[in-house]
Automatic annotation (TrEMBL), chains A, E:
It comes from Umezawaea tangerina. Keywords: ATP-binding, Nucleotide-binding. This is Monosaccharide ABC transporter ATP-binding protein (CUT2 family). It holds the Pfam family ABC_tran. GO terms for molecular function: ATP binding; ATP hydrolysis activity. Residues 6-244 form the ABC transporter domain. Coiled coil: none annotated. The keyword Nucleotide-binding applies. The keyword ATP-binding applies.
Automatic annotation (TrEMBL), chains B, D:
It is found in: Cell membrane. It is a multi-pass membrane protein. Keywords: Cell inner membrane, Cell membrane, Membrane, Transmembrane, Transmembrane helix, Transport. The keyword Cell membrane applies. This is Autoinducer 2 import system permease protein LsrD. The keyword Signal does not apply. It comes from Umezawaea tangerina. The chain crosses the membrane at residues 35-55, 62-82, 113-135, 141-158, 179-200, 231-250, 271-299, 311-330. Pfam families: BPD_transp_2. GO terms for cellular component: plasma membrane. One of its GO terms (molecular function) is transmembrane transporter activity.
Length: 255, 339, 298, 339, 255
């Protein structure tokens, strides 16, 4: 088995005197969907942001493809190392339109410096169409969209980035039934193309129908990781609530 | 990304997961005022070393008295900034308040009537600012800049460009007199400071102002009467600017057309910002503003007393402003040091 | 001459057009100069338009823009107060465009770009001020209050310092700047008097300093020990003389200055050689003030 | 809450549910520039009625030439504001750029070397502003205000308070010469304007700047190199301020210590804001800034030509500023009229 | 049957030239939970905001307790008329702490003017405890909370307001399994105390287990209203997607 696409080991994070993460570890593999679940405030988003380069871990290791990748000092670095992210708060620029938001950080250009607006809008429209999503004109400012429409734009942005590692923090929280199904389909496709998809979700139905593995966080610690086809819903809920005790501490690969 | 593999040392971690609050000491230490006070002490030590006169009672009093103007004006300005607004017209309102009061005084109106009348005129200006911003949808800076220009012109026209004097002795005592050895202008500033501290920290109004500045949309959605708050803020900002102008007139015994203006606005805003009020709204304290105002006049005073050639004044002022805030950040980072 | 413009309604065809770029149009002294100029221009059949920067403070940039605008509008003459060496070049540009240039309180001479200058330069103003102090019995220690060490303030400081060097009973204890901010006068003079308790005379080029300086002298109980040399009767100068916080006052016959300046400029325009004008500036004691005021001095 | 029971009239509704975009005409009509141009035309008509000189070629040229300074400076300032920053030091950088260039010129350095050297000095100041904001975590206004004070002192020390002149004729031609009847300074402004329009509207950099100003956190999270952008913005703002100073020196043939300062900063910021750039970041256009800058010098010019006594200047300016923006809002509200 | 607590009739709303609502109507009764469902961008949040006083309808009527209540010009007016809201974007003030946020718009006071901070914090802690919610200290700034913790604070704020009409726009989108169940329990309690609860949700399970009626919006129009115990999940999904045709236009009370 090759080195995991993404490996976290003993990650800790303090905000001032508040401890957000105590000991987070998991391995996400290429071609697999890895779900992270846990109570509110368990540290899921903080974990995602650390991998994304928004925060820096105070301790512990984050390895991409088994390599220590040195200091990732910013989200720009992380992006260069092949990581695309959908943040829980979506991180859209409200005054820019959908097309710009989708291309942000990777704007297409012509002649070296000119922004290729036509191509940008075409690509945005195509990605949205592929996602079977209706958000009106790609020139609509993101600030005018409904909650779900924004979320779709954020997901579409990550898809368009086409990176080997995708981190999705609650990508379906604001989505309707149909749109959630679409995003599920997209995630399946991403797995099929060999990407490592890490998805945070409270929707256990969604997790059970799309994820391969699930890691449960509780109070900033990894409780355990399970293969979805080997675990029951009750056990996962028990791990989330603390009814099931955490796995014995260990520092080797899980699952 | 290996950040560190050092084993966790728990002893210096007061916190549990997601819990932990800072101790009272930490709370005091992390305040911006604390840094500013330290900077003031440093300047004081330096000035005393160069001139024993610095610590004389009359000099310290004179520092306090000159900070009164900035502070009174800055109180209203700070409240407005905390509420997410900005008033560029304050410098001209300062002049208008001084001139309209002094005009009445030289016409023989007794000061207990003239002062409220002068302030009322300026409150009306504040209401106009509010109306222009709210109903004509002009951004605050442009609206108040426009008011600034217009008032500057009106100030000149009203007085024909000449200072208004002589002022009755009774009025001059408003600032120049003293009670139990403390001069009246300082007492006024203390009263204003206490009032604003109370307003901001102990009333619903204060919380609502912070909410408005912190997230205007949320304030609207959560049912705050934002127009009323805005109106109150603009009127209060104008009132303190006018009061500062009135106190200044009483200090110098003249209604000066040339006092106020851009530089006064700038000084008040500097006191506000250096005192830790954020232009982004929501954050700031009256204590900070007070320390900021005193710091400004302390610097001016120390520059003269230490005999630093006046050509270097602005360099020193700029350096102190920047370093006071920079030091503040470094101090905090140390307190919350990363492992 | 060009067709009339620039706010002229009275001036008929061919009347000479003069633009007066007033440094401080709302300030009483300068407004009076402007009014006297306008009267004289009317006498001479010229058409004088006045402009000036917005706001309270002297704004050399705005003045220069207006000098350039008047040049572009092909005025026959431009009159201004050169608030800095930089005016020389724009005045030269105006001359090159065929405009007659007149200045008040300028350096005059070839390099100044001015066809006709009136009023003393800063060196002689400094001599007048310091001379009047030196003429008083005893030793004198000056505390200087200037706007800044640039432009007008610097010219004035240089003039005063040059003059002091030539006396034997006047010294300078220290100087402070207010940045032309009236609200800084009180604290700065206070600090000046704290740092230099030996100061006998506060000297300034800004009338706006008067109330602050007077207040500082009184509140420190220095009445009769430290005096202000008042910079004109406005701003409480007369009152200060009356109550004894000021012992001397700088007075000028600004109206005559303004009229003579217009005459000079008109003469140059008509190809005549303008008359040399006497210096009309004086530092006087309390007893002379009213007499000069009655004569139109300020 | 009965709002209205009037039956829907569909004809004036171009839109489908959630769809519909505005027509090109509407797009032009709703732009703030359009309002400002209308205001300019109104002022022009009034000025022409009072003085035939207003429409003379030389006068219109003179309006344009005096707007050049504001515009060049405002371009960089606008970009910075769009990117969510603010530079209070611009007025002093203006002076520094002018003085350092002129110092070199009077020492005999030819202008093609002196100008880049002067600009380079100011770019370094921009970099310092960036560093203070970014690494010392000083809020932008305090940082640049500190720089403003320090530079003001340095400007004076370097020149000993005296203007720097005479400048070589070759350098003066940089602004005073003309090509095909268009004066060089106007050409420089056009070049700067085109460059900034291109930067803002047609490059990735421009989009990134808007994103940064629109939502800094999102810009960080989406992988923009925000430090680089910040650095570029502060340096560009300083460079345009310096260039404006250099052009001004060439226009007037002297390096003036008293040019620049607070009033110049204020004018540039006014041009930026009146031109529709939002202090909240993200929004604004170079066209707007250009119209704003021309409007400011048009007002100044018209005030002189119409013979309005200078005492009234500031009242008129204030009224025009406020009403231009207010009219803009009313116009838009009309276009998008509520049924 | 008494007049509905909240009645909307033919509500239309334009944003500039964009039509957000074309014809929205429904009746919500006291002592019932009324769900509003629909695709992303269907107009659910816009409807809520109109009732809440944040937006004004361009046409149509909004009636509270059968009375035309005249112009509600602001959220403050709506609040006075007995409406409490949880917005989809939560509308928390990030720089204020949890206790302040929960009391916003209705701060407790002593002696007429003094803010009663102690009582405010006590009440906040009590409400949070009643909701069985763990967000740490009530003095934590809202900006430092996790997504779900914020949502809980927003819900708690509405509960604390204790108004007869409650509008909840996606109150469980960011919540975990346990927290969602808690909020479901709260909603049941609110109904039991006779409040009219309007809830927007994409979570049909949640809707089916807690709502009494459900109104489906599609493209800014009311498709129809059903009693939850009389309708199947498939029919509701069909109404959302457009597979089931809208009810015939009518202007009388529904269901
Ligand atoms: N302020 C606004 N300006 C312009 N268009 C708007 C505005 N607010 C909403 N819209 C548009 O109105 C439509 C309905 O939006 P709304 O937020 O009501 O949808 P929703 O049903 O709440 O969707 P979601 O489930 O995604 O939250 C959308 O197409 C949206 O883009
Ligand atoms: N910037 C911050 N400063 C202080 N504390 C923070 C910060 N960000 C997060 N926290 C705290 O860290 C803990 C974990 O937050 P995180 O956002 O990672 O939770 P989460 O698992 O994503 O929860 P949710 O499901 O609600 O989104 C929370 O207690 C939160 O209050
Ligand atoms: Mg989260
Ligand atoms: Mg919604």
């Amino acid at each position: 088995m090759p080195a995991p696409a993404l490996r976290l080991r003993g990650v800790r994070k303090w905000f001032g005197s508040v401890s957000a993460l105590e000991d987070v570890h998991f391995d996400a593999h290429a071609g697999e969907v890895h779900a992270i679940v846990g109570d509110n405030g368990a540290g899921k988003s903080t974990t995602i942001k650390i991998v994304a380069g928004v925060h820096r871990a105070d301790e512990g290791e984050v390895l991409v493809n088994g390599e220590e990748i040195g200091h990732v000092r910013s989200a720009a670095d992380a992006q260069e190392r092949g990581i695309a992210v959908v943040y829980q708060d979506l991180a859209l620029v409200e005054c820019l339109d959908i097309a710009h938001n989708m291309a942000l950080g990777n704007l297409p250009r012509r002649f070296g410096i000119v922004l290729d607006r036509r191509r940008m809008e075409r690509e945005a429209a195509r990605v949205l169409k592929d996602l079977k999503v209706r958000v009106g004109d790609v020139r609509t400012a993101a600030g005018l969209l409904s909650g779900g429409q924004r979320q779709v734009v954020a997901v579409a942005r990550a898809v368009r980035m086409d990176k080997p590692i995708m981190l999705l923090d609650e990508p379906t929280a604001a989505l309707g039934v149909q749109e959630t199904a679409h995003v599920g389909g997209i995630i399946d496709e991403l797995r099929a193309t060999g990407k490592a998809v890490v998805i945070v979700s409270h929707d256990l139905d969604f997790v059970f129908s799309h994820a391969d593995r699930v890691t449960v966080l509780r109070l900033g610690r990894t409780v355990g990781t399970r293969r979805v086809d080997e675990v029951g819903r009750e056990e996962v809920v028990g791990m989330i609530t603390g009814a099931v005790p955490p796995d014995a501490p260990h520092h080797d690969e899980v699952a | 990304m290996t950040v560190t593999a050092k084993p966790p040392s728990t002893q210096d971690r007061p916190a549990e997961h997601g819990g932990a609050r800072d101790s009272l000491l930490t709370k005091v230490l992390v305040r911006q005022e604390t840094t500013l006070v330290l900077v003031m002490i440093a300047i004081g030590v330096f000035a005393t070393a160069r001139s024993a006169l610095f610590l004389s009672e009359s000099n310290l009093t004179s520092i306090l008295r000159s900070s009164v103007i900035y502070f009174v004006m800055a109180c209203g300005a700070a409240l407005l900034v905390i509420g997410g607004g900005l008033d560029f017209s304050a410098g001209a309102v300062f002049t208008l308040g001084a001139l309209s009061t002094c005009k009445l005084l030289v016409e023989g109106v007794p000061w207990p009537l003239a002062v409220p009348a002068g302030l009322a005129v300026c409150c009306a200006v504040g209401a106009v600012n509010f109306a222009v911003v709210t109903y004509l949808h002009v951004p605050p800076i442009i609206a108040t800049l426009g008011t600034f220009y217009m008032l500057t012109g009106i100030d000149n026209l009203v007085t024909d460009g000449a200072d208004v004097l002589p002022l009755p002795a009774g009025f001059q005592r408003v600032a120049q007199g003293s009670v139990l050895g403390v001069s009246n202008d300082v007492l006024i500033a203390v009263a204003v400071g206490v009032l604003f501290w109370f307003l901001l920290e102990r009333t619903r109004f204060g919380v609502n102002v912070r909410a408005l500045g912190g997230n205007r949309q949320a304030a609207v959605g959560n049912g705050l009467r934002v127009f009323r708050l805005d109106l109150a803020l603009y009127v209060i900002a104008a009132a303190t600017a006018a009061l500062a102008g009135v106190v200044y007139s009483a200090q110098v015994g003249a209604g000066q057309v040339t006092a106020g203006g851009t530089s006064t606005t700038l000084n008040a805003v500097t006191a506000v910002l250096i005192g830790g009020v954020s232009l982004m709204g929501g954050m700031g304290s009256v204590q900070g503003v007070a320390v900021g105002a005193v710091l400004l006049s302390l610097i001016d005073n120390a520059l003269v007393l230490t005999g630093i050639p006046p050509q270097y004044n602005s360099i020193v002022i700029g350096a102190i402003l920047v370093s006071a805030v920079a030091v503040d950040h470094l101090r905090r980072a140390r307190i919350y040091r990363k492992r | 001459a060009d067709r009339a413009g620039g706010g002229s309604s009275a001036g008929g065809q061919g009347a000479m057009t003069i633009q007066f770029v007033n440094p401080l149009p709302s300030y009483p002294t300068w407004r009076q100069i402007g009014e006297c100029m306008a009267d004289e221009a009317k006498q001479r059949g010229a058409d004088l338009a006045q402009s000036g920067p917005t706001g309270q403070a002297l704004d050399a940039t705005a003045m220069i823009q207006q000098v350039r605008q008047a040049t572009a509008n092909k005025k026959d003459a431009i009159i201004t107060f050169p608030a800095g060496e930089g005016f020389a070049e724009v005045l030269k540009q105006a001359k090159a465009a065929g405009v007659v240039t007149g200045t008040i309180y300028g350096p005059g001479g070839e390099g100044s770009g001015s066809d006709y200058n009136i009023g003393p330069d800063w060196a002689s103003i400094g001599e007048t001020l310091v001379g009047a102090v030196a003429a008083q019995p005893g030793k004198h220690v000056l505390g200087l209050v200037a706007a800044a060490d640039t432009g007008l303030g610097k010219s004035w400081l240089d003039g005063v310092k040059g003059a002091v060097a030539k006396t034997d009973n006047v010294t300078i204890a220290g100087e402070v700047y207010t940045g032309d901010d009236a609200a800084k006068a009180l604290p700065q003079v206070n600090a000046l008097l704290t740092a230099h308790p030996d100061v006998t005379t506060i000297v300034t080029h800004m009338g706006t300093t008067t109330p602050g300086a007077v207040s500082a002298i009184k509140s420190r109980g220095l009445l009769g020990r430290t005096f202000l040399l008042a910079g004109g009767h406005d701003n409480g100068g007369s009152e200060a003389m009356e109550e004894g916080t000021a012992n001397l006052m700088l007075m000028q016959d600004v109206c005559t200055l303004g009229k003579q300046l217009v005459d000079g400029v008109v003469d140059v325009h008509q190809g005549k050689k303008p008359a040399e004008a006497p210096v009309r500036i004086q530092v006087v004691g309390k007893d002379q003030v009213q007499g000069l005021l009655d004569k139109g001095w300020v």
